């Protein structure tokens, strides 16, 4: 099995909290045995939704929560829409071990940033099948990363591999995965039938260095992308969040140059890009400043417009400039690639 020296350490929690119902599932029992053998502190709680996290302030609780996992049963099984990245969400887990200052889950998770691992994977996949069947002969896409980085916790559960192989058997279902992890090796020999598109979330190195903690390096992600491509998966990149920092043009140009240098030519024929500019809400800004008091992440509402649903994004002129520049950098280097959206 090919690995790289840039790989990040695999995540293991300090504390694992189990719902009693989780023991009714093989995955729940397996996780319990695994954590026990690793000396993880084990607890039982009635629900994975509201766990007590130690700490006297939000910052402490955030960092403690990122060392915890909750193992439980997902009861809300009807997949929710997930535009623009897919038709629906496929939620196999919630949250992830990384600490990105700008995390798009900040507001929705609030204090509940601990990783939640759902053990009823078969039931979650069956709920997807119902939707695929309902839509008849139309292709239905599911996003596995709408509430998590499933690759960063795959070594614990194996549920992403299960989902990939499940979608490999679906005539009209397709899976989409996004990651900032380079731990892809356990997925390379999965029987995917080309039905899962693997996208790596990347950014200018200045953004990765300043605002992403416990993620793989850019080099690690690009290396993993090459392995995923060689395993026959359709490949894509999400460049997010796009940030207008001092020197952003040079930074994003260097990123695209690096990508062009690292990808095998054959990988560029069926390549997708998704471009997502930075956004925040008043609530996420408050949480981010509490979690990362020294962050330099710019979140001044004066520089933004209110887009609806409480979200602030760059003003139209700046957003257009960002979009035009990124599209031109991509087209110059990857003429056959498809930019699926800019948002
Ligand atoms: Fe949030 Fe994704 Fe970063 Fe995890 S990897 S902290 S889900 S932005």
Report on the architecture of this protein.
The protein has one domain (15-342): pyruvate-formate lyase- activating enzyme (Alpha-Beta Horseshoe). The protein is 34% helix and 22% strand. The chain has 11 helices and 17 strands. The longest helix has 18 residues, at 316-333. It is globular. It binds iron/sulfur cluster (SF4). Iron/sulfur cluster binds next to β7. Iron/sulfur cluster binds at residues 96, 98-100, 103-105, 149, 180, 215.
Shape: globular
Specify the helix fraction band: 25-40%
The oligomeric state of the chains shown is: single chain
Say what the CATH topology is. Answer: pyruvate-formate lyase- activating enzyme
Lateral arrangement of strands in the main beta sheet: 4-5-9-10-11-13-14-17
Measured on Cα atoms, how large is the radius of gyration? 20 Å
CATH class: Alpha Beta
Mean pLDDT: 95
SS summary, helix count: 11
Uncertain spans: 1-5
Order of helices and strands: EHEHEEEEEHEHEHHEEHEHEHEHEEHE
Ligand catalogue: iron/sulfur cluster
The largest β sheet comes out as: 8 strands, mixed
CATH architecture: Alpha-Beta Horseshoe
For the record, give the distance between the C-alpha atoms at the N and C termini, rounded to a whole number: 38 Å
Class from helix and strand fractions: alpha/beta
The overall strand count is 17
How many domain units?
1
Strand content: 15-25%
């Amino acid at each position: 099995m090919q690995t790289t020296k840039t790989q990040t350490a695999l995540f293991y929690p300090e504390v694992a909290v189990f719902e009693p119902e989780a023991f009714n599932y093989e995955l729940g029992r397996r996780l319990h045995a695994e954590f026990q053998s690793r000396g993880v502190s084990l607890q039982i709680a009635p629900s994975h939704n509201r766990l007590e996290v130690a700490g006297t302030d939000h910052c402490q609780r955030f960092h403690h929560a990122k060392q915890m996992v909750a193992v439980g049963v997902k009861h809300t099984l009807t997949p929710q829409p997930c535009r623009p990245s897919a038709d629906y969400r496929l939620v196999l887990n919630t949250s992830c071990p990384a600490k990105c200052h700008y995390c798009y889950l900040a507001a929705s998770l609030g204090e509940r940033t601990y990783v939640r691992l759902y053990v009823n994977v078969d039931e979650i996949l069956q709920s997807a099948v119902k939707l695929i069947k309902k839509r008849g002969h139309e292709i239905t896409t599911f996003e596995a990363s709408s509430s998590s980085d499933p690759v960063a916790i795959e070594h614990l559960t194996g549920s992403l591999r299960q989902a990939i192989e499940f979608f490999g058997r679906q005539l009209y279902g397709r899976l989409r995965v996004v990651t900032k992890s380079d731990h892809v090796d356990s997925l390379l020999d999965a029987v995917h039938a080309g039905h899962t598109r693997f996208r790596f979330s990347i950014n200018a190195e200045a953004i990765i260095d300043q605002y992403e903690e416990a993620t793989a390096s850019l080099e690690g992600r690009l290396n993993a992308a090459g392995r995923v491509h060689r395993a026959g998966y359709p490949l894509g990149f999400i460049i997010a969040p796009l940030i207008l920092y001092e020197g952003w043009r040079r930074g994003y140009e260097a990123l695209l140059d690096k990508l062009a240098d690292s990808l095998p030519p054959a990988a560029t024929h069926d390549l997708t890009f998704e471009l997502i500019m930075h956004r925040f809400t008043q609530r996420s800004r408050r949480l981010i400043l509490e979690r990362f008091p020294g962050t330099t992440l710019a979140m001044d509402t004066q520089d933004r417009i209110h887009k609806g649903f409480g979200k602030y994004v760059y003003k139209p002129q700046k957003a257009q400039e960002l979009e035009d520049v990124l599209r031109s950098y991509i087209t110059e280097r990857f003429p056959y690639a498809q930019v699926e959206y800019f948002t």
